[in-house]
Each structure stands twice: as C-alpha cells, then as structure tokens.
Design goal:
By secondary structure, this protein is of the alpha/beta class. Helices cover 30% and strands 27% of the residues. The protein folds into two domains: 254 residues, P-loop containing nucleotide triphosphate hydrolases (Rossmann fold, 3-Layer(aba) Sandwich); 196 residues, Rossmann fold, CATH 3.40.50. Keywords: Cobalamin biosynthesis, Glutamine amidotransferase, Ligase.
Length: 505
C-alpha cells in the first residue's frame, strides 16, 4: 500500500486526532509503514523528540499509534498561544517568532515551503502518511493562506475525509455545511464523512445518513461509537472541560485504605497538562482540575502545572485567591508540586524581560530559587534519579531556575513536602511515580498504596489498540484503502451552498 489521506473535521475537537491515530494503529497492525502528519498545530501540549524538535503532543501520540519514532517533520509548524492575541511560532521544532494574527501572514510562504517539504520527505520514507487537519477546513476567511487543511490537500492532491462529532448535536448540518462552503476544486477532494461519538443504535441514524449521501454524493465511511476514557495526549484545554474528576477507568478502587486526592490548578495558559495523565491511571488516585480556592481544601497533593505565560498566570493565581490557598495548603504540611512554569511560580522572584517583559516579579517564595528568562528556549531530553528511581523526562522552557538551597529534586529542589522541577513526563516512569505517590501519601497522612503492577506504557498501548479497533470494527476500511491508494474518486458532484432548500424530506 502507498499513498496519503487527510482527516479533516467539522470543528475543533471533532475527533480528528483520535481518528488519525486509529487509522495509524490499524495500518501499523497490518504491517504498513505509516507516519502521522499535522502541517500546523495550535497547542500548548508539546514534547521534545529525540532529534531535538518540539512538536505537538498529539503527533507524538499518533507516532506511538503508528509504532514509529516521533520527529520534527511530523508537525513542522506549531503555534503556542501566549495571550489571546499573540503566539510563538515553532518551525521545524525551533521557535522562530512571536506573532499576532496579522504579522503571522508575513511568515506564511516560509511556513508553506516547510510544510510541503516535510510532507514530501515523509512520503519518501513511509508507505502511507495520514494527515490531520486543523480546526475546520471551511474557515473561509483564512482559506486563501491555508496550509493545514484544503490548502495542503490541493497542493498534495490528498483525498479528504471529514469527521463530525454527533455528541455536540447538528452533525448533519455541519457536515453538509462544511462541504457546501468549499469551492468546486476543494469539494472534488472531499471523498466521505465519518460520524464520531455516537451513543445508541446506529440504525437510528440511517435515514439521516441516506439523506446526507443523496444531498452530497459522498459516502459515510462509518459511525464510531462513544468510547469514554480515551484522554491521550490531547491538544488543548478544550478537552479539560469534559474531565472534571478523572481516572482512566473512572474512579478505580485504591489498593490501600484511602483515595489520594490530587488538585491540579487549571491556569488560563496551562501547558503540558498531559503530565498528569499517568497519575490518573493509578487506582485510587482522584485527579481534579481546579480554578477556585475552595477546591484545594481537601486536596492531599496540589500541582501547579506548566504554563505558557508564567507571570500572567501567577497574577491570575493571586487574583483568584488561589495563591493564598496554596500557601495555606503548604502551611498544613501538605505536599505541593510545581512543574516547569508551576515551579517558576514557587521561586522567590522571577526576572522576565522575555515572555511577559514585566521585569522583576515576586514569586510565591515557597522554594529558595530565582528564575531568569532567556531569549533562547531550552529543549532537552534529560535523565536523572529521584526517590532511588531512574527518571527520563523532557524540558521546554525559557525560564531558567537557579536553586539557592533546599534538597535536590530531579533538576529542581525541595523543601519539606514542596517540590519543583522543570521536567515534564516524569510520572510516565512507573518506578518514580509509585515512589513519589507513596511519599506523598505518607506526607499527607493517607493510607494510600500505589499499585505495583500499573505500567503507563501499557495503559497507553491499550488505548491506542482501542482506537485501532474502532477503525477496524466501525469504518469501511476497504474504502479507506482505496482512498489512500487512488485518491478521491473522479466526478464527485459539486454541492452549491443552499442546495437542500428545495429538497423534499
């Protein structure tokens, strides 16, 4: 098999990432050498690959689904919002600019060249490349400079499958509208639809599916059932709205006598909150994302996670009364962990002329450390030890923390039950996670016992296999194969906007 496919969506969070991962796992299980690709990703969840590139965490997950090593070419353009109006542009794994919507346009030709070169490179080294679109392909105000959706499909002559989330409602209107708002040349590449997150008997959908086929001349390639618990390396904080209190299999019973309650502060610019996924995989660990001081009252462990805007999110923490709640938590000798931006907030002071340009800002003064922001971003894949266990992590930051006391903790420091590190991904190391949770439970006075047999790598593999099963069991895989190998069928009809108006229902 040889070819490529673009998975687009009617909206953000329609299911493009998981469908792309599912197709990658389905093909990999058949012995196909397959790679994921996302031309342009906007996300604050990222990772550092072995080749030193920063790419979206979703593409790392999709590479795992494809059973290949993630690399910079799989996500050549990554946008990391620092405010409502400005984003950092990461090109081929390295930051190149801070832009707003207007100045971003000046970069588009350079980005387009990098996108097409990266895609062409992957095509020479893999049998199949499964591309994921960004947002919606019918953001018609942006179509002229699009490099991630139909712009990529047109440039590379890719067949396009459009995914719609039926759980949100309005899936038939969104699918028809997505097609109808495209011009004729774009429509010619849209080969079919996939309905995602359906609860119930698929037979109930058949009248609507039949009408969609008749109105568009395109096939519905399948209906994917609702499958809870697939929070895997999600792209942005939209996904946090559905989490609340979470564990991978609901509230798993603890192995000891107590549940361990973890409160993760949900900053406005929270980043790399996938660090918490491995904690949520542990039986008896209840993880909550919180935004109010009272939500910290019964927490055994409070986590200040990563942030793309440390100084701004620290001000938010103070404005909301959460900073005082964190200090009260520590005063009760309860454990506190800061990761990357969260660690920076725990320092005595922050010197920032780079990210916020706020100058010297007082931190929470819970750890003896000083932060200085540098122009160069630190990207790395460090290894160390903590609690007698080997820890592999990754780091992505401009703020450099210098510890001036305390006990060593990974690359950071600890004072009593307060700990800080710039390393992401530490909890994916099973031995370290268990030792950290055991220490945390002891410090919090909980009779919680970490499970000795939970492998987070196995948890992730099970979820990826579940995605592969979704594709194999519920999509027309023969039709997918034909699209990948032969492209969109010739002669697909053009559907003008408003076409259904006179249709007899």
């Amino acid at each position: 098999m040889s070819g490529a496919l673009l998975v687009a969506g009617t909206t953000s969070d329609a299911g493009k990432s998981v469908v792309t991962a599912g197709i990658c796992r389905h093909l990999a299980r058949r012995g196909v050498k397959v790679a994921p690709f996302k031309a342009q990703n906007m996300s604050l969840n990222s990772m550092v690959t072995r080749d030193g590139a920063e790419i979206g965490r979703a593409q790392v997950m999709q590479a795992a689904a494809a059973r290949v090593e993630p690399e910079g070419a799989m996500n050549p353009v990554l946008l990391k919002p620092g405010s409502d109006r400005r984003s950092q542009v990461v090109l081929l794994g390295r930051p190149v600019a801070e832009v707003d919507a207007m100045s971003y346009r000046a970069l588009k030709e350079r980005l387009r060249e990098a996108v097409l070169a990266s895609f062409a490179d992957l095509r020479t080294r893999y049998d199949v490349v499964v591309c994921e679109g960004a947002g919606s392909p019918t953001e018609i105000n942006l179509r002229a400079r699009d490099i991630a959706n139909m712009g990529l499909a047109r440039a590379a002559d890719l067949p396009v499958v459009v995914v719609g989330d039926i759980d949100r409602g309005g899936v038939f209107a969104s699918m028809f509208g997505t097609l109808a708002l495209l011009d004729a040349a774009d429509q010619a590449l849209v080969a079919g639809f996939v309905v995602n997150k359906f609860r119930g008997d698929p037979a109930l959908l058949e009248p609507g599916l039949a009408m969609l086929r008749r109105l568009t001349g395109r096939e519905v390639l399948g209906v994917l059932p609702w499958l809870p618990g697939l929070w895997l390396d999600v792209e942005d904080s939209l996904d946090l709205a559905d989490r609340g209190s979470l564990g991978y299999d609901g509230s798993l019973p603890p192995r000891g006598e107590d549940v361990l309650r973890v409160a993760v502060v949900r900053f406005p610019r929270i980043s790399n909150f996938t660090d918490i996924d491995a904690l949520a995989a542990e039986p008896g660990v209840l993880v909550r994302f919180v935004t109010r001081p009272e939500e910290l009252a019964d927490a055994d462990l409070v986590v200040l996670p990563g942030s793309r805007a440390t100084v701004s999110d620290l001000a938010w923490l103070r404005e909301r009364g959460l900073a005082d709640a964190v200090v009260r938590h520590v005063s009760r000798e309860r454990p506190l962990l800061g990761v990357c931006g969260g660690y920076q907030m725990l320092a005595r002071e922050i010197h920032d002329e780079v990210e916020s340009r706020a100058g010297v800002v007082p931190g929470l003064d819970l750890l003896p450390a000083v932060v200085r922001f540098g122009a160069e971003k630190v990207l790395g894949r460090p290894r160390g030890t903590a609690f007698g266990e080997v820890v592999d992590g990754y780091e992505i930051h401009h703020g450099v923390v210098t510890a001036e006391g305390g006990e060593p903790f990974l690359d950071g420091c600890a004072v009593g039950a307060v700990r800080g590190t710039t390393w992401h991904g530490a909890f994916e190391n099973d031995g370290f996670r268990r030792a950290f949770l055991a220490s945390t439970a002891n410090e919090a006075g909980r009779r919680f016992v970490p499970a000795p047999d939970v492998s987070f790598a196995d948890v992730r593999e099970q979820r990826l296999d579940a995605l592969g099963d979704l594709v194999a069991d519920h999509l027309d895989t023969d039709a997918l194969d034909r699209l990948i190998e032969h492209g969109a069928p010739a002669g697909l009809p053009f559907v003008p906007p408003g076409a259904p108006g006179g249709t007899q229902l």
